[in-house]
Amino acid sequence: MASGWAPDGAVQDQIDGSITDAVRLARSRLPSGPGEIYCQECGEEIPEARRLAMPGARLCVACQSGHDRSAAQSSYNRRGSKDSQLK
Ligand SMILES: [Zn+2]
Fold first, then answer.
1. How far apart are the CA of 10 and the centre of ligand 1, in A?
2. Confidence check: pLDDT of 30 > 80
3. Strand, coil or helix: what is 82?
4. C-alpha of residue 21 to centroid of ligand 1, in Å
């Protein structure tokens, strides 16, 4: 169906453009490269199994779990409501 106000394909070009931007943005937020061999926080060696499981990991398990815990506390209410939905 021709829209009459834009050449066919113009809208699709716009959608493709925004998807490309979103992918680029998401990739820029992900850790890139092979990650770190030593934890950036405490300097302990990150186990090879963890590095293989989480390419780009920059923290050891202990430091990462500490980060996860503080993140969980900051979103406690959201997680709490999610848990109640599961009951
Ligand atoms: Zn660490």
1. 50
2. no
3. helix
4. 33
